[in-house]
Amino acid sequence: MTAHGAATPATGRPHGARHTAEEFTAVYGAAPTGTWAAPGRVNLIGEHTDYNDGFVMPLALPHTTLAAASARTDGVLRLHSGGADGGIVELRIDELRPAPQGGWAAYPAGVVWAMREAGLPVGGADLHYDSTVPTGAGLSSSAALEIVTALALNDLYALGQEPQRLAQLAQRAENAFVGVPCGIMDQTAAACCTEGHALFLDTRDLTRRQIPFDLAGEGLRLLVVDTRVKHELGDGAYAERRAGCERGARALGVRALRDVPYAQLPEALDKLADEPDVQALVRHIVTENHRVEEVIARLDAGRTRAIGPLLTAGHASLRDDFKISCRELDLAVDTARAAGAIGARMTGGGFGGSAIVLVEEADATAVGTAVTDAFAAAGHAVPRIFEAVPSAGAHRVE
User: Fold this and answer.
1) In angstroms, rounded to a whole number, what is the distance separating the alpha carbons of residues 90 and 291?
2) What is the 3-state secondary structure (H, E, C) of the chain?
3) Active site (annotated) includes residue 186
4) How does pLDDT run across 244-266, given as a tens digit for each residue?
5) What pTM was estimated for this model as a whole?
6) pLDDT digits (tens, 9 = 90+) for 132-156
7) Catalytic pick from 186, 226, 321, 363?
8) How far is CA 5 from CA 144, 148, 232, 346, in A?
9) What is the pLDDT of residue 2?
10) Which residues contact 264 (CB under 8 A, 6 or more apart)?
11) Closest Cα partner for 312 from 281, 277, 336?
């Protein structure tokens, strides 16, 4: 789970493999060896469970970060983004060191560092990035940047690493190099999702299952409401909640909160009566894992509409127990529900970013209009609303 999105900014400029390759050529003076893509993601259900060894269920978005790249033989790493201010960032790979708050270039540089720390024979490279993944929206722009870098280097240097291994290396880059204590979900989603599916991931043993999620075939739509706000409280508060969950696991004598059975939650909460803040965190994690299991059961039974109340219940838990919602997210969820949505909840790290809304196809326009009007009436920024179409994970484009 990415606590903040300091990745290469999305732009309104042309976006496509050919355009990205042409920009690479303009920046570096030679054509790239190839172009790769990695998607942003929304999390259908399972929020803040990943760093508790729990269950998550993301799906990849059609919005991607593209990287045109070529290998270098001189140990130099050159990075350039079409959406970031400034020119080429030039680094030596043998001098890379962890650099918390190092700006967008720390994410791809961290991937190179993590690969080399793992003993992989990665040399220098020229990379140019372009992205349509909104930053700061809770859609994991940083993981898309990391994974597209990892995949490009994997191919350029014929490393033979599987997608899940690339996700683990990217997570290490974000944890140890960039300094964000994220779980494994975002990187795995960017690397491993498949078109037309949501990805069930057990973050403890990394077992995965692709769950068919054909919304259009059932006359449904999943909308993303990007509130366009990101409250500064989010960065430190993310780490505080992770530490609180770890404190709860220690108090309950379990390795991680995923080991607290849902049926035994009342007894667990009784043991934490003297720590109400930790008690609330534990309640969210245990009930959220249960909601993931319930969503899978309903999708397997062909009852897609029946997941709506679980999404809404997840939002209430994130708002009241985890306390990571905000007025804009609550307004989006409440307005969508009042306008006829089947279910809605915030998605991502919290304190801003995006909400997801499950709607009947026939109601999508009216629900979107209601949310936009409500934001205008409240004096908030105009939200960006788009459809989340379950899309492919990272891949080479050309």
Assistant:
1) 46
2) CCCCCCCCCCCCCCCCHHHHHHHHHHHHCCCCCEEEEEEEEEEEECCCCHHHCCEEEEEEEEEEEEEEEEEECCCEEEEEECCCCCCCEEEEHHHCCCCCCCCCCHHHHHHHHHHHHCCCCCCEEEEEEEECCCCCCCCCHHHHHHHHHHHHHHHHCCCCCCHHHHHHHHHHHHHHHHCCCCCCHHHHHHHHCCCCEEEEEECCCCCEEEEECCCHHHCEEEEEEEEEEECCHHHHHHHHHHHHHHHHHHHHCCCCHHHCCHHHHHHHHHHCCCCHHHHHHHHHHHHHHHHHHHHHHHHHCCCHHHHHHHHHHHHHHHHHCCCCCCHHHHHHHHHHHHCCCCEEEEECCCCEEEEEEEEEHHHHHHHHHHHHHHHHHHCCCCCEEEECCCECCCEECC
3) yes
4) 999 999 999 999 999 999 999 99
5) 0.91
6) 988 777 788 999 999 999 999 999 9
7) 186
8) 10, 16, 12, 16
9) 34
10) none
11) 336
Which amino acid is located at 192 in the chain? C
What's the length of the chain?
398
